[in-house]
Design a protein that fits this description.
Strand content: 15-25%
Organism: Roseovarius halotolerans
Family: Belongs to the class-I fumarase family.
Helix content: 25-40%
Keywords: 4Fe-4S, Iron, Iron-sulfur, Lyase, Metal-binding
Strand order of the largest sheet: 2-1-3-8-9
Order of helices and strands: HHHEHEEEHEHHEEEEH
Enzyme class: lyase
Structural class: alpha+beta
Largest sheet: 5 strands, mixed
GO molecular function: 4 iron, 4 sulfur cluster binding; L(+)-tartrate dehydratase activity; metal ion binding
Number of helices: 8
Number of strands: 9
Oligomer: single chain
Distance between the termini: 31 Å
Length: 319
Amino acid sequence: MIPIDQIQTTAETLMDKAAIEIPQDYLDGLKAAAETEDGDLSSFVLQAMLENYDAAKEDRRAMCGDTGVPRWYVKMGNEAQVEGGMLALETALRRATARATNGVPLRPNRVHPLWRTDHNNNVGIGAPEIEYGFEPEGDWIDLITVHKGGLFGTDYRMLFPSDGIEGIKRFYLDTLVAFGKRGLACQPAIIGIGLGGSKDTCMVLGKRASTLRTVGSRNSDPKIAELEDEFKELGNSIGMGAMGFVGKNMVIDCNIEVGYCHTGGMQMSVHAFCLSSRRAVARLFPDGRVEYRTDPDWFTPYQRRETVEWPPAASQAAE
């Protein structure tokens, strides 16, 4: 059984790491973009951000003044047990969010949509979001925190099967241009695309694609992996760079996730993670071990399963 005190302590550490320490995969992608960027203002922004990251880590301060809205993803092995149950786990994550807001510190961005009530701790009705995933084996728990900007950098459209790949490309490019021209996202960024599902799950897929996959990872479907490479190149061909200035590095990487949808539609969402891609992960074991990492490893074969049973019948037959 995993102690609840350890969950809260680990969650507080993750909040600090996410706000301050850039994941190495994203940092490498950003450095590669800086080396090839030839737009004057875009180059200036990229170099300034790289310097800011070094300063943030050295001074142990949040790398960006707007620390976004913290959210949690929890993935559990099927045999995992939490002291006090799931209510205790959610309380621990809310406590960790409140304590980190004052301790890191983070900007208290959460308010009531109507009354603008602000508890100054990023906690309130439905905040922070906590989403769950499960794996067939294991007695561990993965805690993943993501600090993503909560205003813009997201769009959705209901496409139709006849729109095809060309229609997906058109909406993708329209969205990136709007992000850059109207200042709706902080580029360059990891772009996540959700295809299919229903409107709500399409948005979830796209956000997870942008925040829960590392730079350089590719979808397990080879055809989708090819699209990811193509869309990265396509996004960097529109003449925009850092923060929408003239340049050629708007997309650090493009990740695509899909879900089965209604036969008559093809839902699509586009999400830009922040220029400061803030995420941190820890795996907690019942023997007290805690392993920190930056790769959420969310999209496992189980998360992308198509079959009714798990493992698929073909796998069972092979055994």
